[in-house]
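Quick one: C-alpha cells for this chain, please?
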Amino acid sequence: MSETLGQNIVIENEPGAAGLLGMRTGAKAAPDGYTLLAVNDSVITMLPNMKKTRATIRSRISCR
C-alpha cells in the first residue's frame, strides 16, 4: 500500500472498549484525507444496540 500511494504508512492499533476508542479517534481525525479507519463491523452494529439496551434496562429497573 505504501508503494502504491508513494507515502509512508503508520498503523496505530488502538484497542479498548470493544473498538469504541479507535472509532472515536478516527472520527475526530482531521478531514485531510490522510486517515483511514478500519474497524470490525461489531463497532458499528453491536455497540449502538448495547448502549440502547443498557439504557432500557436502567429505566426499567429505576421504575420499579
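The radius of gyration is 17 Å.
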